[in-house]
Structures are given as structure tokens and as C-alpha cells.
Amino acid sequence: MSTADILSPQALAEACAKAMWDDDNATRHLRMELVSIAPGEATLSMVVTEAMTNGHGTCHGGYIFTLADSAFAFACNTYNQRTVAQHCSVTYIAPAFKGDRLKATAREVSRRGRGGIYDIAITNQEGEQIAEFRGHSRTVKGTLLPHQD
User: Fold this and answer.
1) DSSP characters over 81-118
2) CB 7 within 8 A of CB 135
3) By Cβ atoms counted within 10 A, which residue in 21, 24, 52, 62 is the most buried?
4) Dihedral class, residue 67 (left if φ above 0, else alpha if ψ from -120 to 50, else beta)
5) Do the Cβ atoms of 17 and 42 come closer than 8 Å?
6) Angle, to 10 degrees, between the axis of helix 9-23 and the axis of helix 61-76?
7) Rounded to an integer, what is the distance from CA 121 to the centroid of its chain?
8) How many secondary structure helices (H) and strands (E) does the chain include?
């Protein structure tokens, strides 16, 4: 019996998020915060620092993409099956600025076989839409939690 077999779906999502967080150097290095986690869902936040701004004085799109990608990763890894991005796209809607607290909210749209689709909304502290991200996931071999006999 695996650890995953004895946990509720919410407890499993939380345990998977902890395992992911402990090994996710990029997310921690950018000082992202895991705001919430549930099966197929995740919300992460990040404050835009001066180091994240570009030549226009706005948040570089790569950092916005990274925040959304991290929320996507946490959402699609809530089932104790290692899952990676297969394809992602982002549409930038409005600029973000130094000091803004961005929030990426990921939700599962579809999960069938080895594939999944997740939509991630990125907003600022005022609730204004900054970007929309869609991620296509693919499960791979392995689990996040150890197998116990």
C-alpha cells in the first residue's frame, strides 16, 4: 500500500505540494509563496522586485511566465504522479510593476489518460488581470511520495 492510498484527496494534494516545494529551487529562489493547494488546483504569489523589471520599467514577461508555470506544476502534481509540462502558452494582457504582488491561480480543465489541460490566471494585488496561461501536462514515470509496503 502506498502513502497515497491512505490519504484523502486534499491531504494527498498537500503532501505532494510539500514534496514538490522541498525540491523546487527555482520557485523558492524567486520567493514565491504557495497560497493554496487542492486536487487539480494551486495558487502561488510573488512580489515583483527591481531585479525582475525590464528596459520598459515593467515586470519581464519571463518572470510572469515562471510564476504561472510554477502554479501549473503544483496543480498538475496533486495526484502523486510525476507530471511535467508538454506545451505552454501565455497571453500578456497588462503590465506588472515593481512592488506588485502577482497571484497565479491554476485550475484543471481536463485530465484524461496521461494528459491534462490547466488554465492559469495571473492577477495583481488589485485583482487586475495581467496574463492568461494555458498548460498542457503529461504524466511520466514515478511518484512524488514514497511507496510503503
Assistant:
1) S-EEEEEEEEEE-S---TT-EEEEEEEEEEEETTEEEE
2) no
3) 52
4) alpha
5) yes
6) 140
7) 11
8) 3, 6
The mean pLDDT values, 10 residues at a time, for the chain of 149 residues are: 76 97 94 98 98 97 98 98 97 98 98 97 98 98 81
Q: Is the pTM of this model over 0.90?
A: yes
How far apart (Å, rounded) are the C-alpha atoms in residues 87 and 30? 22
Q: Decide if 64 contacts 126 (C-beta within 8 A).
A: no
Which of these, 28, 113, 112, lies nearest to 73 by C-alpha position?
Answer: 28
Distance CA 133, CA 127 (A): 16
Phi and psi angles of residue 14, each rounded to the nearest 5 degrees, phi first: -65, -40
Kind of pairing between the strands at 83-92 and 129-139: antiparallel
Is 127 in a helix, a strand, or coil?
A: coil
Distance in angstroms (rounded) separating the CA atoms of residues 79 and 12: 7
73: phi then psi, degrees, rounded to nearest 5: -60, -45
